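Notebook B, p. 112. Complex prediction, attempt 2.
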Amino acid sequence: MNAAQSNKMSQSNQSNQSNQPRQVGGAEPVLRLQNVTKRIGRKTIVDKLSFDVHTGEIVGLLGPNGAGKTTAIRMMTGLIGISEGDVQIAGRSIQKHFKEAIVHVGGIIENPEFYPYMSGYDNLKQAARMTDSVTEQRIMEVITLLGLQEALHKKVKAYSLGMRQRLGIAQALLDRPKLLILDEPTNGLDPAGIREMRDYLKKIAQAEGMAILVSSHLLSEVEQMCTRVVVIQNGRFVTEQHIGEQGRVGALPELQIRVDKLETARQVLEALETVQVTEVRESKSELICQTEDREVPALIDALRHADVAVYRISETKKTLEDEFLQWTGGNQIA
Amino acid sequence: MRNMTRLIQNEWLKLTKKRSFWIPPLMLAVIGAGVTFMLYKFSTNVAEMDSVTVYLAGMLNASGLGQFVAILSIIGTAGMIAQEYAQGTIKFLLIRSRSRGQIFVSKYIVAVFYTLMMTLIAGAALYVSGGIAFGFGGTAAEWLNVLQQGAYGFVYALVYVTLTFMVGALTRSTGVAIGIGLASTMFSGIVIFREFYKYVLFPNADLSVYGTMGPPIPGMTVGFSLIVLAAYMALFIAAGYTVFRRRDVA
């Protein structure tokens, strides 16, 4: 290697280092959004959005209608320009190295659209011809994975929405992407279809070992399959939440206790140091209190000693849905 | 290179897998045969032709079946870009590891193929029907003339197909593209006798006039027209290409 070459190489290494964001937790994120902004005219549709997605994660991008989810996804896939900031896929900028970045992405943006006059197979072949390495064998593999064998040679116009959705995922998976992006994949599906989709997405995430980003305006549809949700509203990042995390930060389990003597019960519980009474519901003769699991037996003993009859103890699980509505301020149309 | 041929293959299949694909070529063949029959039956000076080559040379250019080649090619290719938007398949197309430039070029190449195919079909229909009517055969010089007139017909159609292709890329509407494409073919016959008009696309599109009626405006030559046409086509392609590459796909 001559001096000029090695000089060039070290330069490119340096520029690589300075271009790439600091790596957190060792692994490079599959998808990284850095202050991504989209302005159309004077309107800012997505405003300085930043988050990462790592391999093996299924991340939900949540927000009410009009929050900017689809716009954000279109920027990630290069369908629309980015006004400010950058999107990197496997370390490659979608703006500067479109082909190298997008090669790692499989996606369905909005509805899965195909050439209706062609068969499902012909549509997959169309997709395969736009890749460098997809073989006939891989096409058949994906077809089997999604159970499309029987509909394969039917024209796509005869497909149900659920079938089109599956074909959409099949085409997205063809080139073994590192990142699967699905925009509102449950739109228009019936509950059975939604469940089916959820199941095969989980299956695929395991089988193919990739990151999945799913956008939705309905948390309940994705919370069961996501490991993490990113919530946005009015184009801005609102919050990020891991799902299935034991003991969310700062939150004690909340109990709802129905008793006969409400006032006595309140006094008894307030006397206990480990219990915080947060609410008294006279109409239902119920107390709401917070305490740790290990304190619950003592709580019950105390009530019994005070001769309070306990009819029911249940945990008031604040669902993610409630929190989601809280984060996004209900269902207001922004 | 392999990437490009496979993109072209994709585009060609998108056209040919449609059931309606066969309508324009069939129409062209029927029109070709029909026109030959009518001329043979009712036109005295054509019926006296002694060979198919003379007939072919007279019919392949824009004043003959070339006009139909242009119209049907416009209709056949106008939707190549607009349909992708209408079907929503544009997203499917653009989130692949292929540049928008490559996709645009592959589509244009297929539009050129289609126009060439239509020209050949017109030639074949006229040759078979004309051969039956006037007898097959012809001298080498006559065949050369046939090739020249065929090329003129092809260029004429291609100019308008390119214009239509650009309009399709700019407006994303098949209807508007066909409308503007067809309307513009009608301007070819109109000549405004002013100096500037020879730099306009329309009087230059039909190269066959130089052999029959002479230059539309004094001072024009085949070479001049070819340069003007090349400039316009380059402009159309550049405009379509630029817009297609930059546009936000919503």
